[in-house]
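BUG: 3D viewer hangs when loading the predicted structure for this chain

Environment: internal workstation, default settings.
Expected: structure renders.
Actual: progress bar stalls at 90%.

Input used:
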Amino acid sequence: MIDNTGMLWYIKNHKLTLAERVTEAANAYLAKTGLNADEAHVNPIHMVAGIERIGEIEIVADDYILPNHVWVGRLEVLDG
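Structure tokens produced before the viewer hung:
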């Protein structure tokens, strides 16, 4: 079984690069939960060709994420 836990982060500064957006959201997630994010979902309009990871974070294009938002969190495989 797979479980995704995380949070949706609004990016106030619309001029940030994809890497800056993901880093800002991941830092907020770490501050709130004490956990490092390993996955980030962004609206496809913010994707940059050739970027699939930023550090240890996998970047996923996701139509369900609003522009100027980043969902960051952890993908966990659960037993059972």
